[in-house]
Amino acid sequence: MTAIGTLATHHVGLNVTDLDRSLAFYGEVLGFETLGEGKEGDSRFAFLGQDGRLILTLWQQAGDAYAPGRAGLHHLAFEAESLDHVRAAEAALTARGATFAHEGVVAHHEGAASGGIFFHDPDGTRLEISVPRGAEGAGAPSGSAPTCGFF
After folding, report:
1. Cα maximum dimension of the chain
2. Over the stretch 89-132, which tens digit does the pLDDT of each residue have?
3. Cα–Cα distance for residue pair 151/132, rounded to 1 Å
4. Pairing mode of beta strands 53-60, 33-40
């Protein structure tokens, strides 16, 4: 077997039901810039990123909302620079009417330094914005919670 070296995530592609609605959410609320848009057959798509680096591709080709019980994506997690940035995202999401899995910043597990917010995009896709440290004072949704806020 040939070693392929270390791999890192380049970008994530999400299916969405309404590209314009998703572009507004990921752009206006989460701060992603549109790097490009296009059409392939009946599907529209957009490349989103930060500082010119591709992070997310949205594909308008889904007929139904996200289904957590199906195989595939469990949740998509973003790491923020600081807990203040997580709280700023929480305020922007709250103003936008986003739904949260938990109220406020929660720790990944009881006593953990890492934690964040857990919420849903317009199609119900589960998203997380967290920090590796700084959440020491936040409680966990459950003492035996896994390292992610979606159970």
Report:
1. 52
2. 999 999 999 999 999 999 888 788 999 999 999 999 999 999 99
3. 20
4. unpaired
| Prediction pTM value | 0.89
Residue 106 contacts by C-beta under 8 Å, 6 or more apart in sequence? 115, 116, 117, 118, 135, 138, 139, 140, 141, 145, 149
Question: Tokens 């592609």 belong to which residue?
Answer: 13
What is the token pair recorded at 151?
């159970």
116 vs 95: CA distance, rounded Å: 18
Strand locations in the chain, DSSP E? 12-16, 33-40, 43-50, 53-60, 76-79, 106-107, 115-120, 126-131
**Residue keyed to tokens 């590796």:** 132
What's the full length of the chain, in residues?
A: 151
Structure tokens at 29: 């609320």
Amino acid at 33: E
